[in-house]
Amino acid sequence: MSAAGAPQAADRRGILDDGRARGLYSGAAWSLGDASGPYDRGWTGTRALDGPALDGQDLWDLASVTKPIVGLVVMALVDRGALRLDDTVGHHLARYSDSPHAARTVAQLLDHTSGLPGGVPLYRDHPTRESLLTALGPLPRTAEPGTHVTYSSQGFILLGLIAEQATGQGLDDLMNDLVCAPLGLTDTGFRPGPAGRARAVATEACPWRGRTVVGEVHDENAVVLGGVAGHAGLFATLADLERLACCLVGGGRPLLRPDTLTVMTAPRTDHLNLRRSLAWQGQDPVGSPVGDGFGQASYGHTGFTGTSLWIDPEAGRYAILLTNRVHPSREERGFAELRRDFHTIGA
């Protein structure tokens, strides 16, 4: 770390220490770096309010940061010819061939312009995987396809199913084969086993489950789907996300062909209400969750549990922030402002 960077690192730690003291989360981990690796990283706090101290080996529920990593799986399948961006839902998923979503394309699901609704709590009335997937079919469109960005977890549930149907493999196996194994991500995956759960950071004291959730996906729809889904369910350590981020800024082995990554990360919806690329959030001119400290070509994603990964390809840098801001409850207590402050220090 440069001498100029040292005060900024101290400020970032101070912000995150203060967030812990104010009860925004029990713990936080962070990393900033470039293609050669991190130049500022650390952790503060505990795995739960009454839990052990973080030690850097902690396992975090990534929540919707799952979406762009599943997007990397989808784009790797595009690279291999197993999928095309203009393939439709109905082409791959016979159960939805008569649904309102049948003609929606893989690209529209990835950039959230399919017209599918957003975070519908299907789990409340559909407690089994089969009933939830059936209920997904007739969901009404919120807009005509291609006319509006509507953030849709339901669209990514469909993407996960499409990837599985196109390959005959489970999404968890595809994740391992196409993302984790190539990058050496040994602590990233769905449904942690006993050893992983022992290192997991607590999320919500969940009223639906009647207990504090630890090492099990926080998202309730993902729970009903068995913990493996296109929209949520991945767990990872800070070190694994650093490896992924370094890859995305040009370090190490690439996951995708260069032109495929360019297509994936290029803004597609600047004529609409939000800037989106394929599976990634773009840098919105107003209201970006990471403030205005990243370039206009930057992209990333946030997660409901208090996680985020942001990439600035022009500057060749990344930022990772991992917290359990839903512990012990999902009430917003000032985390959004803290996240913006963290990302704009030294920008």
Oligomer: single chain
Mean pLDDT score: 96
Q: What CATH architecture do you see?
A: 3-Layer(aba) Sandwich
Write down the CATH topology. Answer: Beta-lactamase
The number of helical runs is: 12
Within CATH, the superfamily carries the name: DD-peptidase/beta-lactamase superfamily
How many beta-strand runs? 11
Helix content: 25-40%
Instruction: Note the gap between the termini.
Output: 15 Å
Order of helices and strands: HEEEHHHHHHEHEEHEHHEEEEH
- Net shape: globular
Protein name: Serine hydrolase
Keywords: Hydrolase
Domain Beta-lactamase-related: 27-333
EC number: 3.1.1.103
Explain the layout of strands and helices:
Layout: H1 5-21, E1 27-34, E2 37-45, E3 60-61, H2 66-79, H3 89-92, H4 106-110, H5 129-136, H6 153-167, H7 171-183, E4 189-190, H8 194-198, E5 205-206, E6 211-212, H9 220-224, E7 234-236, H10 238-248, H11 258-265, E8 281-282, E9 299-303, E10 307-312, E11 317-323, H12 335-344
Antiparallel strand pairs: 1-2, 1-11, 3-7, 4-7, 5-6, 8-9, 9-10, 10-11
Helix pairs in contact: 1-12, 2-6, 2-7
Summarize this, please?
The protein is an alpha+beta fold.
